[in-house]
Write a structure and sequence with these properties.
heterodimer, A: 151 residues, alpha+beta, five-stranded antiparallel β-sheet, 5 strands, 23% helix, elongated, B: alpha+beta, 34% strand
Chain lengths: 151, 138
């Protein structure tokens, strides 16, 4: 269903900025009140240099600052209405805080048909480094493509 | 900071438990902007119907963000080493989600003693939406 030659292909790198206003909007949308995420003093008392980002916010930063948020859709050649998110993983290696500038380097790592071709699972892994070159995190997602029925 | 993780937890301990308000169209619209995920399927009813769905539905990553919030309410964020989920089923509008996490295993990770938490997010009917895992340093 999907061209297997896309496996191993790198997508455009994304440089993203951890901006306090956008982060506040995210927190307020989710009703986040944990002092570590809301109060810079509490964050510093927990050992952070500044307010850290909540556990899933890396995914948002990559989309917000991408020139094409859905570049992978163009690469795999499907309609956005046929996608579902299958799995998501974050591995945390170092803190990410307000003021950081992050480099996201996404790569397509797998593509496999399932259920007799009814769906295709596409794996994308993203290495995240900060402005000091520190490898701060890895993100991995599995996207489910619902394939049209072939009559 | 949770008292539960200051002392050695035991297998089966429920460290994470949090309930969230019903998911509204307004929440989905706000999350669309806040997350940068502008996929119209979550906010545009006409688009969702044309794609074969009865209505718009919740971003999987919004549900994972709630699960993450439940997790970091219970576990000091600097101790979080990894966090993963499988999106088991679509979360419908109006869903009232409850997130839970139980200690499932003790492991060593990069020379550091850690606990694995088995995580779930269920709706008000008890239907499983997300199944996940977190690794936390002890």
């Amino acid at each position: 269903m999907i061209d297997p030659s896309i496996i191993g292909r790198s997508l455009s790198p994304v440089t993203a900025h951890v901006e306090p206003g956008r982060l506040r909007y995210f927190r307020e949308t989710l009703g986040e009140t944990n002092p570590v995420y809301v109060d810079a003093g509490a964050a510093q008392a927990s050992g952070y240099a500044a307010t850290p980002v909540p556990p899933t916010y890396l995914f948002c930063l990559e989309m917000m600052d991408a020139e094409q948020a859905f570049e992978f859709i163009t690469v795999i050649g499907v309609d956005i209405g046929r996608l579902l998110h299958g799995e998501q993983r974050f591995t945390y290696r170092a803190p990410v805080v307000v003021g950081d500038t992050l480099l996201f380097e996404p790569r397509i790592v797998s593509a496999a048909d399932k259920k007799g071709g009814a769906m295709t699972l596409v794996g994308i892994e993203t290495k995240v480094t900060n402005q000091n070159g520190t490898h701060v995190a890895d993100c991995a997602r599995t996207v489910v493509v619902l394939n049209p029925k072939t009559a | 900071m949770s008292e539960a993780v200051k002392t050695q937890p035991t297998i089966g301990d429920r460290l994470v438990h949090k309930a969230f308000p019903p998911i509204s169209r307004h929440t989905l619209a706000l999350y669309c902007g806040a997350s940068g995920d502008h996929n119209p399927i979550h906010v545009d009813l006409d688009f969702a119907k044309a794609a074969g769905y009865p209505d718009v539905f919740t971003h999987g990553m919004l549900v994972m963000a709630y699960l993450g919030q439940a997790l970091t309410d219970a576990v000091p964020p600097p101790r979080l080493r990894s966090f993963s989920t499988r999106f088991v089923a679509i979360t419908q509008l109006g869903a009232r989600l409850t997130c839970e996490g139980h200690v499932s295993e003790f492991v060593e990770h990069d020379g550091e003693p850690c606990a694995k938490l088995a995580l779930t997010t269920k709706d008000e009917n008890g239907d499983l939406k997300l199944s996940g895992e977190a690794l936390i340093a002890l």
